Amino acid sequence: MIAAVKVRGDVDASEKISKTIESLGLTKKNKVLFVEEDDEATKGMLNRAKDYIAYGNVSEDVLEEIEEDKDNKVEVGSKVSMTPPSGGFRSTKKNFNNGGALGKRPNMDKLLRNMI
Fold first, then answer.
1. Cα radius of gyration rounded to whole Å, the chain
2. Which helix (H) or strand (E) holds 3?
């Protein structure tokens, strides 16, 4: 399963990107969306919004921790409002590969654990 977290507001984003983020249902910062790994359309949407969100694979252990903390069933398509990560996000203007918080990550476990 893939988790996507809205990191930045999309006020200055193009209309195309804002509509993509809205279509994903990421209306507020720190909102997490869970999607299937093999859904190509959603992957394209995540890639388009990569300058405003962080996304990547999440383990079953972290999904269980979120379910326990939020008293929700975490399933495909569900959205969960979380708190900002303890210690804050790294730079919200840089890609993950460049030392920031945005874009595709190999693993979302550390970020999501900091948000519980």
1. 13
2. strand 2-6
Going by their DSSP bridges, the two strands 100-105 and 31-35 should be labelled as unpaired
Domains detected in the chain: 2-115 (3.30.1390.20)
pLDDT at 55: 94
Summarize pLDDT for 43-101 with one digit per residue, the tens: 999 999 999 999 999 999 999 888 888 777 788 888 888 889 888 887 888 888 888 88
The tokens for 66 are 């979120």
**Chain segment 77-86, per-residue pLDDT in tens:** 888 888 898 8
| Residues with Cβ within 8 Å of residue 18, at least 6 apart in sequence | 10
What's the CA dihedral at 7, 10, 16, 19 to 10 degrees?
Answer: 80
* Inter-residue contact 103 to 54 (CB < 8 Å): yes
If we measure between CA atoms, which residue out of 67, 77, 7 comes closest to residue 39?
Answer: 77
Q: Which two tokens stand for residue 75?
A: 């399933």
On whether the CB atoms of residues 17 and 10 are closer than 8 A, the answer is yes
